[in-house]
Write a structure and sequence with these properties.
There is one protein chain. This protein has 305 residues and is of the alpha+beta class. It has 8 helices and 5 strands. Helix 1 packs antiparallel against helix 6. The protein is elongated. The two termini are 15 Å apart.
Amino acid sequence: MNKEEIYTIRPTRSKLLIVWSILELCTVSLLFAMSFFFLFANSKLIQRGPPAFQLRIQSDSIFAKNTFQLVQQGLKFATYLSNDLNIYINETIPETYLQQIDSNYDNNLYQFNVFGFCRKTQFDKILNCYNGQGINIAACFLQDIGTQLGNLTNQADPSNVSTKLVSFYYNLVDQICSDSDKKLCALQTYNTMSRIVQYLGISSLICLAVTTSTSFFEMIGYCVFAKSLARVFFIVKVISMLVFVFTICILYCIIMVMKNFLTDLITQFQIGTLEFPSIKWITWGVLTLMCLIIVVKRYLIYQSI
């Protein structure tokens, strides 16, 4: 190969590397944006989007109707404990108010996700969206009910009522499990797993933020200054991507374990149907695989130059 051929080929390869650098940055940025959307969908921040799972309330059987009546009686009893809960509801809520609390009305749709949940009508109209431990159904119901109680009793901050109810629930479960070994202690494990899921979600976003930043600075370094610490940047990107894959796999496994627990619970009490959409996990996996392939391909192109 003579000198003229070398000068002809090198700019072509450089342009090819720039194209792959841009493609890598766009793909990783898309994965970060999509992951953020998937994790924060069905919350106050993003009210629409694919949930981790959803529950449609249906009281078709006598057993289910009795369950709902028991829940309403429990709500009424909770008002008697308002002073103990430090909620400052000075009188019990009348029956007419309780009937307005429609958290368990037929065909209401609850969509749960990692950082929140939404309650909708059967016509897909959003009634309320909340931030919180969206995977924890028990805490979500208490949060929804507490907010409605706060609104009905004209509290200055209705969310304060829901916060205290949820805290009371956590403390009650912890107290019961510390005193004796009962089946109810499964709820303590369930509560812990809900927190772990949120930590995994945050960790996955941090990993993608590192990958995106590294890809950006590497592209700028090569395009503007014609310099690149390719090996160092490549190692950082691969490690952060692999950690991201690891956290998402654990998150998926935990949700699948919780799926079996929740399915058995919903079936036992016959209060509705539980659905676990899988399309979001498939999309997530395909885009993640694409990102890994593009990161490796860009590095191989750089090595061949």
